[in-house]
Amino acid sequence: MSDAPILVLGSSGKLGGAVVRQLRHAGYTIRQATRNPDPSDPAMVRFDWTSPLTWAPAAEGCRQVFLTARPLDVAAAAIVPGFLDECADVGVEHVVFSSSLGTDIQVTGPLGLVESYLRHCGLGWTILRPNFFMENFSHGWLLPQLQSHGRIQLAAGAGRTSFVSVEDVAAAAVTVLADPAARNDVHDLTGGDPMSHTAVAAALTRASGRPINYHEQTVEEMRIAGQRAGLPGGSLEYLLSLYGMVRDGLAARKSDDLRKLLGREARTFDEFAAANADVWRVEATTRHD
Ligand SMILES: NC(=O)c1ccc[n+]([C@@H]2O[C@H](COP(=O)([O-])OP(=O)(O)OC[C@H]3O[C@@H](n4cnc5c(N)ncnc54)[C@H](OP(=O)(O)O)[C@@H]3O)[C@@H](O)[C@H]2O)c1
Questions:
Q1: Would you call 108 exposed, middle or buried from its count of C-beta atoms within 10 A (0-12, 13-18, 19+)?
Q2: Secondary structure (3-state) at 163
Q3: pLDDT level of residue 284 (50, 70, 90 thresholds)
Q4: How big is the chain by its Cα radius of gyration, in Å?
Q5: What is the pTM of this model?
Q6: In a domain, 185, yes or no
Q7: 126 and 136, same structural domain?
Q8: Which of 35, 57, 83, 270 is the most buried (most CB within 10 A)?
C-alpha cells in the first residue's frame, strides 16, 4: 500500500462520501476534495471545477485519483480533460473515473467524451459505469417529496432500473484502487433485478410502514418541476434525457461486473430500504408541490 494519499473528488457527496469512508476503513490515506474544506482538517483540500487554480495543488503528491464530474454537468467534457492533464503533470499514475451506465450509448454525451479522453491521455485508468443510485431515494433531491407527500414524482414511465447502491460502487472503487490487475478496464455496475418506480414505492412502503406512491409525470411536468427547483436549463434537459433512457428500458440491463469485482452479490433494494427506513418515516414540515 502506497503512503501517497488518494485524492477523492466529490468527497462530500453520496458516492464520494462512501468512497472516503471505505478507503479510510481499509487503511488508506485520503485527501478529500471539496469546495468548502474545514480548515482544521488536514485531510481536506479545496477543489472547485470552476476554479482551475485549485486543481493541481489538490492532486500534487497523489498517485491515484477517484474522479467524479459535477452531477448533470453538460460542460464536463470541456473542463475535466484540463484537470487530467494537470494530474499527469504532477505525477498521478491512475485515475478511477465514476461515469454512468449508458455512456456506451451516449458516447458523445459529456461523460462519454470524458471517458474517451481519459483512455487516451496517457494516465492509467479505470472506468466505473454505475446505474442510478438507490441512495437517490434516501439522500438526494427526491427525498423532500418523499418526506412531505410520500410520493416519488418522475417522468420515468413504467421503465425499469437495476438500481445500484453507492456502497457497492464505492467497494468497487476501493477494489480497483487497490488492485493494479483490475485497471485499464470498464466495469458496468448495476444492482440485481430491475424495478419500476411503482415497485420502488412498494419497497419503500414495506420497509417504512408509510404508504408511498409513484406519480408518473409527463416530461413537461418534470421539466416545470425542475425549473421551479432552479435546475439550470442544460442540466435539466440532461436529466430529462436520462429519464428518457429509463422509459426506453435502457436502465434495466443487468451486469455481472460488480459480482466479478467484489466476489459477492450486489446489495438488494430491500436491504437498502430496510437500512434507511427511518428516513421515509419522517414527515418534513416544509411542503413541496
Ligand atoms: N445519482 C445517481 O443516480 C448517479 C448515477 C450514476 C452516476 N452518477 C454520477 O456520480 C457522481 C456523483 O454523484 P452523487 O449523486 O454522489 O453526487 P452528490 O451527492 O449530488 O454530490 C455532488 C458532489 O459534487 C461536488 N461538487 C458540486 N459542484 C462542484 C464544483 N463546482 N467543484 C467541485 N466539486 C463540486 C460536491 O462537493 P462540494 O459541495 O463539497 O464541493 C459534492 O460532493 C456524479 O458525477 C453523477 O453524475 C450519479
A1: exposed
A2: coil
A3: low
A4: 19
A5: 0.96
A6: no
A7: no
A8: 83
Task: Write out residues with Cβ below 6 Å of ligand 1.
Answer: 10-16, 34-36, 47-50, 68-71, 98, 100, 130, 132-133, 136
d(CA 173, CA 183): 11
Q: Ligand 1 test: best mutation among 7, 35, 101, most atoms within 8 Å of CB?
A: 35
Contact criterion met (CB below 8 Å) for 240 and 222: yes
Q: In total, how many domains does the chain have?
A: 2
C-alpha pair distances (Å), 25 with each of 34, 100, 140, 181: 20, 25, 24, 22
Nearest CA, atom 7, ligand 1: 100
For residue 226, CA distances in Å to 39, 122, 149, 217, 239 come to: 34, 39, 17, 12, 9
Q: How far apart are CA 288 and CA 48, in angstroms?
A: 30
Beta partners for residue 214, in sequence order:
152
Domain with 140, as residue range(s), is 132-163+190-253+263-289
Q: What angle do CA 164, 81, 169 make, to 5 degrees?
A: 15
Say whether both 94 and 154 belong to one domain.
Answer: no
pLDDT in tens, 89-126: 999 999 999 999 999 888 889 999 999 999 999 999 99
207: left (phi over 0), alpha (psi -120 to 50) or beta: alpha
Backbone dihedral angles phi then psi of residue 37, each to the nearest 5 degrees: -70, 150
In sequence order, the β-bridge partners of residue 8 are 32, 66
CATH number, domain containing residue 108: 3.40.50.720
Separation between Cα atoms, residue 125 and residue 145, nearest integer Å = 38
CA separation for the pair 276, 172 (Å, rounded): 22
